[in-house]
Amino acid sequence: MKYLFFCAAMIVASFCNAQGNHFWKSQNENTQIQVIVNASETKAAVFTGDYLTTYDLATGEKITSHGFVYDDVVKFANGEHITSFSEDLSLVIISNENNSFWSLNTVKNKFELPAKYDKKHAFSGLDYEGNPIQYKKNDKSLYINYTSSEFEIDSKVVNYKDLIVKPSGLYSVYTKEDDRNIYIFNHKTQKTSKFPEKDFILDLAENRNLNNGNYIYATQGDTYAIYDIENETIEKHKTALVNSKVPEKFKNCISSNSISANSFKTKNYYFSVEVDAVLNNSKPSGVEQTPYKLVQYNVGDCEKKSEIRFSLPLEDFQKRYKKVQDLIIAKEAKEQAEIAKEQEQIDAKAPIFKFPELNNFGWNLGQDGKYLAINSEEGKQIAIWNLETMEQVYNFIKPVSKDGIYYWHFDFEEDRDNALIIGMQRGGSSGVYSMVDKNKHLDGNTNIPNDRGYITYVNDREVGMVISRYEKDKKGRLDFDKPLWAQYQFMNVDTKQWHSKRFPEAKSLELIPGQKILLVKYKKKYDLYKYKDVTFSNLQKIDEVKTDYQDVKFDLQKQDHIYFVRKTKSGLPDKVLAYNINTKQSHNLGPEIARSLNYENNVSHYVPEIIDVVSDGFKAKKLVVTNLKSNSKSEVFLTAQTTAEKEDLEDQIKTYHENDIESQIELEAKNLKERERRKNINFFFDNFDFVGTGKSYSLDKLRGRELNSIPIANEILGQTWGQKAAIGKIKDCGFTWMLFYVINDPNNTDIRVAKVSKGGGQLMGKKHLLSVPMVNGQIAAKTSFTFFNTTKGVRFDYTKTDLRTGKSASGQIDCGCDTSW
After folding, report:
1. In what helix (H) or strand (E) does residue 144 lie, and over which residues does it extend?
2. What's the average model confidence in pLDDT over 755-767?
């Protein structure tokens, strides 16, 4: 009873020895501990990735606890952090650097979206009243969705570069491109103020980690500044000083074993995450992990007010620690087995041999400029040459079951004798990627999400893609004169980790690796930035070139030049502007020089050229490489030099395909599936009799064939709530049929047309023509219509009379064969 009485007394004083659920942390994981305290200073939450626990600060008792370990994997182990929370901590927002977020309802112990959340817009946090703060993705302007109506504040916060919503929800701190200020927006007063000094850089990491209290953390050279927004006071320290990121007046409370990154002040208290000495002194030797606790001090005298020991008890930690160690050993063994398997795949690659011939081909230089890859007929054979030794180092023969690859880039991994080649999939759906890695050809199974832009970079297991977005006109078509943004995004093909950099109002982006320059294209100019690496974390603008020429090209012999090429409507070079990177001078050249320029830019002193060689009437291809340093030339044949050699190489490829049993089986299955699909497509088209144009229809007498029960009809035309019915083919548009169908549901009958390719059954476009209301299962408007043949396709003429009001309406809608719908 004495023990029970003692613990109860300690609970009242907020010093109970009851332990928490949080796994102990390694030294390099200290920043993963995050503590938040609500504005009324009554509750706190501790987040360590594996657990989130809320506490009552008056008693030190645990309120709620939420585990994030699934199948022995910690859900939040990649820098996720709490960015926002409600006053009662019933709603906690966890975010990451990619603007992904998780909304945890701690009362219900489940993930759910905040009330009034609008899926159309990106999420930034909660305001002081718990309303979602979001921003419009197209122009990055903030708005808050209040209960009564949407209140936009885009006139106050618009086109920002970086944005942090303080967890109090009272302030948003943001910066703008090419602006020397840091801005502060007060969500309560709707007023904007500024950081007191210019040319300070917002410390994004610290403003996220040290997010309790309304402080701004910023740097300028070796000066670190802490700005108190509410009191409008600023402190400055040298960044080299210990605990420089803690306000000076709170440093006297800091324990020698506390974590400065988790030391912060609220209105009346100072909080610090410190080593739990009781547990730490009893841990076994060899354990690197350290237990921690949360300590609360009074601001005035630094007297300790409460102590919350959130780390696991020693016995529970040891059990989980052993499990973690066993998992690490098992994981390492699995990884070693996978590496051995990968090496077997690499060793089983095709033997080195030349191309039989090269007619349609493309080539690219690797990122270091040492290797040249040639892609024959979009992936039929891909070979790589070392430009230093002039040796062919890699040869890939496309399996017969796979589609080709185009718009590609590559990296030859010298230490692994492996090529990583990534591009777009030929013959697949639009925006699907293909990848050759470890001698495997992956079609549409690269882990790269579809439609992420065109491939411009492959290096160090990272693929880089550029994607652009434009405004749409009144007809829903892209307006290429009104760019919204261009973005460079990179993904590690092994870890699936992403990082990206967006440029508002840019049309496109281009890397010049040899000069470490990023080229940003706008409507009337190009901006040039120096970069250190492709995180683009410290871009330095070095110049801008005022031109609207569309193409960027390079001369492999002149690394210090960029050529901007204007094209005619037919795509021919019209004018060329040559820009010297070193002198920052430009001059005009005639269009004829464009023929000798390349889209590839050189990153080394090797200049490759592929030339035709004719001997005894036989045409071959030769690679000639100029060494700019030694001014010497080397050459090697890329293709067969005689008819006999060509036939021998073709036989080698044929034998390689015949021995690839796995690909043969896959091809047969693919052909069988394609034959079945062809049969289904024919059945789909058979439901549409040819009705042509010129015939008048009355909607109440219209009859058609039911389509919902035909799976491929739903695949082609899309799933619908109502019943689809086929009426007929109204126009032969060459390689597509224009089909006429209706959709019936209890409220409406919709008249639609669709263009579907004859060969593959792909939907090339569909158009909604007319909706007619239904009342009690009956058509409520007498409707007649006719399709007329036109030079461009079909015209839909209709007359509709509402049987309830007697009002009539008529109109015409053009449905062109060649126009996009």
Report:
1. strand 142-145
2. 90
% of the chain with per-residue pLDDT over 70: 86
Please tell me the total number of residues recorded for the chain in this structure. Answer: 821
Say if CB 135 and CB 144 are below 8 A apart: no
Instruction: Please give the average per-residue pLDDT across 102-113, as a whole number.
Output: 85
Could you tell me how far CA 138 lies from the centroid of its own chain?
15
CA angle at residue 559 from 554 to 564, to 5 degrees?
30
Q: Which residues pair with 740 in a beta bridge?
A: 728, 753
Beta bridge partners of 422: 409, 435
Task: Flag whether pLDDT at 477 surpasses 50.
Answer: yes
Q: 643-659 and 661-686 are packed helices; what angle lies between their axes, rounded to 10 degrees? A: 80
Strand ranges, E, within 453-495: 454-459, 462-472, 478-492
Question: How far lies 766's CA from each of 111, 232, 716, 718, 800, in Å?
Answer: 38, 59, 10, 10, 22
- Give per-residue pLDDT as tens, 278-336: 888 888 887 888 899 999 988 777 788 889 999 999 888 888 888 877 877 777 788 78
CA gap 217, 234 in Å, rounded: 10
pLDDT for the residue numbered 798: 96
Angstrom distance (rounded) from CA 601 to CA 616: 36
**Measured distance CA(793)–CA(819) in Å, rounded:** 9
Give the DSSP H or E segment for 320. Answer: helix 314-347
For residue 258, which of 282, 80, 245, 266 has the smallest C-alpha distance?
245
Among residues 737, 734, 736, 739, the alpha carbon closest in space to that of 724 is found at: 739
What is the Cα–Cα distance from 181 to 201, expressed in whole angstroms? 9
CA distance 808 to 154: 43
Q: Region of 377 please: left (phi>0), alpha (psi -120 to 50) or beta.
A: left
Q: Give which of 281, 262, 278 is closest to 270, Cα–Cα.
A: 262
- Token pair 């320029």 in the structure block, residue: 597
Q: How far apart are CA 419 and CA 412, in angstroms?
A: 4
Run of H or E including 29: none
Task: Report CA torsion sign: 152, 156, 160, 165.
Answer: negative
Separation CA 588–CA 67 (nearest Å): 65
